[in-house]
Amino acid sequence: MRIVAIANQKGGVGKTTTSLNLSACLAARGLRVLLIDLDPQANTTSGLGIAQEEGGSLYPCLVSDVNPTQVIRSTRLPNLSIIRSHQELAGCEVELAQTGHHLTRLRDVMKPLRYSGHFDYAIMDCPPSLGVLMTGALAAADELLVPIQCEYFGLEGLSKIVQIVQQIRESGANPALALEGIVMTMFDSRMNLSQQVVSDVRNYFSQVVYDTIIPRTIRLGEAPSFGKSIIEYEPNGRGAQAYLSLAEEFLRRHGDAR
Ligand code: ATP
Ligand code: MG
Hints:
With 258 residues, the protein is an alpha/beta fold. It has helices spanning 15-28, 43-47, 59-63, 91-95, 105-114, 132-140, 154-171, 192-205, 218-222, 230-233, 238-253, and strands at residues 2-6, 33-37, 73-74, 80-83, 121-125, 143-149, 178-185. It is globular, with a radius of gyration of 17 Å.
């Protein structure tokens, strides 16, 4: 199983939309995916129309010794399982921070899942902060996928996260962490600025940037309020096309095209 953290400390850039829809598209392609909602806001959980439940998140696994297999739930989508979030996860920021192992705790918790053989990919939706949950996810992950919004401040966030990756590697917690990709989100073709940001990011980060660009569409914004992934909500729309193409490219990068 490859563990992919979807992270950017900047808020509202499309982390949740990408985690949820990339996972749904990979599952639709037959890959066995475990989607992990690591954000106490629980947007991925509710965006899939799934109820939150105290004790149902990774919290009891992180602060006591509950086995993570006990909090995995199947979803209505074949091949897609989830570890839900609940606001209780916010408690980790304080409780884990007081322990000496806060950076490596999630990595240790993930071990039984990593070697279980049940999943091809675990996709972690990270919260928009530099706290224990996000840094723990970067320490636990094999790779990092960074969504950035096609707007001026998008680039600023990007240099910050590249710096964090470097720190995590150098801390010794996860020397092998790879910057797997950068995906440009909420692209608006009517805005010159969007075009400019895409070309700047491609100049700086060339190969790492996905060819697929996620457009800004009303449907992508609406789907979570119906508790649906975009391939359920509007399977033939531009949003679904974009995320299917992102999944395709992701699988090609991983030598996993089927
Ligand atoms: P946070 O940092 O709060 O966790 P996030 O990075 O997870 O935010 P999202 O929740 O995915 O970002 O997106 C922010 C808002 O923009 C949401 O309301 C979402 O529905 C909407 N949105 C995301 N991507 C698109 C898109 N391509 N087109 C239109 N709306 C979008
Ligand atoms: Mg989010």
